Automatic annotation (TrEMBL):
Protein name, as recorded: Peptidase A1 domain-containing protein
MF (Gene Ontology): aspartic-type endopeptidase activity
An individual GO BP term: proteolysis
Positions of disulphide bridges: C243-C277
Taxonomic placement: Eukaryota, Fungi, Fungi incertae sedis, Chytridiomycota, Chytridiomycota incertae sedis
Source organism: Batrachochytrium dendrobatidis (strain JAM81 / FGSC 10211) (Frog chytrid fungus)
Transmembrane region(s): 337-357
CDD domains recorded: pepsin_like
UniProt domain Peptidase A1: residue ranges: 3-316
């Protein structure tokens, strides 16, 4: 459950499909020289064929992401068109090699890190000159709930560059400042409260990342929340829930600096194969201590705006009422965890963060 958009690059224009990632800042795409043997899934764009492509004197760039993906690329410049806006001389990292644990096919990643992120291939710094407000906002169609990363559904959401779309939210935004010393869109998570009981009162850094599917917590908070939900640990990184009891789970309150956001029971799990109920709260040993990542499953509950000028993230109520998630067509309770190991291993590998390792 992540965002993909189409861009046009070069002259004549080539259509490419990229993942939008607020957890990183680099804009890279597969170069035509990056073949399948180098793990590139596509190679539509050939810089040599573009009359507007120009080389840029810059060392080879290497980027690594939290899910194990890495990319090696060369900085060039070319014209890029996004949402009808043409950006001449946009720096692009043309990938010559991509390493990924995922089987998903995409042409590249559009990193939209915060203003204090310095990257030679940063699209927003050029795009902002055409915008009346330096913001990027995300709307998710909450009736769409696929967790298969290979499944792309058209028109399942909306990304707005500039002024947030008033047709997509109601009321006012609640804003929380980003952590000033961090190079990510990160907020201070002050506490977590479940059914009136505080489970975590030690402030941690919480990344808001559109490139991650689930919510990845520090180990203490992860175990406390999932235990309160009545779950059974699977490989120590996810919890399976009793499908017959999910509607009785209490709401979870996340207290960020200046903002309190609540997840109701129907926002706390997803269903796979129409029979397994799995908590959206996961754990990764690769995550630094006192850090959490709030991915798309959390962000989809709100209309979220990333403000480059104010260095803050805003949350508003999305327009439209969505019926509580349908429970699976089964009366099964928690399964034997050993039966799920193979399935969950694949699932976990496809949902861990696309956060750039700085």
């Amino acid at each position: 459950m992540v965002f993909y958009i189409d861009l046009l690059i070069g002259t004549p224009p080539v259509n490419v499909n990229v993942l939008i990632d607020t957890g990183s800042s680099t804009f890279w795409i597969d170069d035509s020289a990056c073949f399948d043997s180098r793990q590139c899934k596509t190679h539509k764009y050939n810089p040599i064929d573009s009359t507007t492509q120009r080389p840029v004197v810059h060392p080879i760039v290497h980027r690594e992401y939290g899910d194990g993906t890495s990319v090696t690329c060369t900085i060039i410049s070319d014209v890029v068109s996004i949402a009808g806006i043409s950006i001449p001389n946009q720096t692009i990292c043309a990938a010559s090699q991509v390493k990924s644990i995922e089987s998903i096919s995409l042409d590249g990643i559009l990193g939209l890190g915060p203003p204090n992120s310095v990257d030679p291939a940063d699209l927003f710094s050029n795009l902002e000159n055409s915008l009346s407000e330096r913001k990027v906002s995300f709307y998710y169609d909450r009736t769409v709930t696929p967790i298969n990363p290979q499944l792309q559904i058209r028109d399942a959401g909306e990304v707005t560059f500039g002024v947030p779309n008033p047709a997509r939210y109601t009321g006012n935004f609640s804003w929380s400042p980003i952590v000033k010393t961090d190079s990510h869109w990160a907020l201070t998570l002050s506490s977590v409260v479940i059914d009136g009981k505080t489970f975590s009162s030690t402030p941690i850094v919480a990344l808001m990342d559109t490139g991650t599917t689930i919510i990845i917590l520090d180990k203490g908070t992860f175990n406390a929340i999932n235990s309160a939900m009545g779950g059974v640990s699977v490989q120590g990184v996810l919890y399976e829930l009793d499908c017959t009891m999910v509607s009785k789970m209490p709401s979870i309150q996340f207290n960020f600096q200046g903002v309190t956001l609540t997840m109701t029971w129907d926002q706390q799990y997803f269903v796979i194969e129409n029979q397994y109920c799995v908590s959206v709260f996961g754990y990764s040993a690769n995550l630094p201590p006192n850090m959490a990542i709030f991915g798309a499953w959390f962000l989809r509950s709100f209309y979220t705006s990333f403000d480059y000028t104010g260095r803050q993230i805003g949350f508003a109520t999305p327009v439209g009422v969505v019926t509580a998630q349908m429970q699976p067509n089964t009366h099964r309770s928690i399964a034997n965890a050993n039966m799920m190991v193979g399935m969950m291993s694949i699932l976990i590998a496809n949902m861990i963060a696309l956060v750039a390792i700085i």
